[in-house]
Amino acid sequence: MSSPRQIAVLGATGSIGSSTLDVIARHPERFRASVLAAHRQVEALAELCVRHRPALAVIGDPALEGELARRLSAAGVDCAVAAGPEAISEAASGSLCDTVVAAIVGAAGLDSTLAAARAGKRLLLANKESIVMAGPLLLAALRQGGGELIPIDSEHNAIFQCLPGGRPDLGHSGVRRLILTASGGPFRGRSRAELAGITPEQACRHPNWSMGRKISVDSATLMNKGLEVIEALHLFQASPDAIEVLVHPQSLVHSLVEYVDGSVLAQLGNPDMRTAIAHALAWPDRVDSGVPPLDLAAHAALHFEQPDLGTFRCLALAFQALRAGGDATAILNAANEIAVEAFLAGALPFLSIADVVESVLMELPPQPVVDVQSLTERDRTAREAARRILRNAC
Ligand code: NAD
Ligand code: MG
């Protein structure tokens, strides 16, 4: 057997990071976590290093580098230590890995995702915000690097599995529509009036999935599905009209592909990210993910319904940004990150997340996406606009 895949897990201390490390640990002959990176959770990162023995550990916050080194040396772990955002990007493109799991949350993951793509790594993409911000630039970086992208986001991983050979070029495969399923989040079926006093704790209590706080709020507002529509458009080169969202509360059908002959292929499984992660890590092979087999008979029925765009306006705003083109989706993403942060801090009502995003989109009409530098600048401008709107609202 060939030597194990060398895997950089960026966002190792998060929900996707820990699911990834769980799958990796089940297959030491195939996979090795050679690089682990996290933001500020120095204790958790050090513990992961004790367990997984990477060659390199990177902490995003440079102030914590010394503490990480001390903890590792006290635990007798022999691994290199680095710090700062540039060190994460260097690790993603460097010789210590051939595969990168991009599982940092938010726009903070963009640089390392691009670095991995340019370096021709196998890129396992969980960090949807980077493709929402910079879809065309990320695809160009992938072409330049000659590597491959396999989506980890469960819907996109499902679509990848339902396309022949995972082929993303819809033009030649007889595909009519991509159908992204959405659980509907914890507030499915509620009216706007019922959502007025929602707290962060209520929003983060997802009925089916256990996830980080930012994506949990995005799931509750349906912005997560909006970001995923944008992600699908880029990944599979689809037009906005060829992507449909279907609410499916059981979260067992992870997405579907409809072909011109009327066939509809779906991927099903228990709602556990380890299935998508194991698929992407081993592709084109299959390995055990640790996820229990799906017992369809135990689930009485599968339901499907249209999303309520009037109540969950974030999804409508995402379609609007997609149709507006240029960098509108980057503006949408930046405004949403700030609004969600404010909501989680108790400084913005749940329903106002959409208002902030809409105001920023109106204030900043789209511009063409040229390069990473100008995009980062626009990201900053959108964040400033969102913060100003928040200040004025208080
Ligand atoms: P999380 O909050 O649980 O973990 C985030 C990770 O990113 C942590 O390890 C944190 O240390 C790291 N991080 C945050 N900011 C950073 C920075 N500035 N520099 C370096 N590292 C930083 O989030 P999650 O739920 O694991 O989600 C991660 C990504 O995966 C998100 O983009 C999310 O949309 C996507 N995703 C998650 C799930 C899921 O089930 N959790 C499913 C699909 C897609
Ligand atoms: Mg998803």
Describe this protein's structure.
This protein has helices at 15-26, 42-52, 65-74, 85-93, 110-118, 128-145, 154-162, 200-203, 213-221, 223-235, 274-282, 313-324, 328-344, 352-363, 372-393; strands spanning 5-10, 31-38, 56-59, 80-83, 99-102, 122-125, 148-151, 175-182, 243-247, 253-259, 264-268. The protein has 394 residues and is an alpha/beta fold. It folds into 3 domains: 5-151, NAD(P)-binding Rossmann-like Domain (Rossmann fold, 3-Layer(aba) Sandwich); 154-313, no CATH class; 325-394, Rna Polymerase Sigma Factor, Chain: A (Orthogonal Bundle), CATH 1.10.1740.10. The protein has a 7-stranded parallel sheet with strand order 4-3-2-1-5-6-7, with helices on both faces. α5 (110-118) links the parallel β5 and β6. The radius of gyration is 20 Å and the shape is globular. Magnesium ion is lined by residues 153-155, 228.
Give me some keywords for this one:
about 400 residues, alpha/beta, Rossmann fold, Rna Polymerase Sigma Factor, Chain: A, 3 domains, 4-stranded mixed β-sheet, 15 helices, 11 strands, about 15% strand, globular, binds nicotinamide-adenine-dinucleotide, binds magnesium ion
Shape: globular
Task: Tell me the strand order in the biggest sheet.
Answer: 4-3-2-1-5-6-7
Count structural domains: 3
What class would the helix/strand composition place it in? alpha/beta
- The termini sit apart by 61 Å
Major β-sheet annotation = 7 strands, parallel
Which ions, cofactors or small ligands are bound in this entry? nicotinamide-adenine-dinucleotide, magnesium ion
Mean pLDDT: 96
**What percent strand?**
5-15%
Radius of gyration: 20 Å
The count of β-strands is 11
Q: What is the helix fraction of residues, given as a range?
A: 40-55%
* Weakly predicted, low-confidence segments: none
Helices and strands, in N-to-C order? EHEHEHEHEHEHEHEHHHEEEHHHHH
- Tell me the number of helical segments per DSSP (H or I, 4 or more residues long): 15
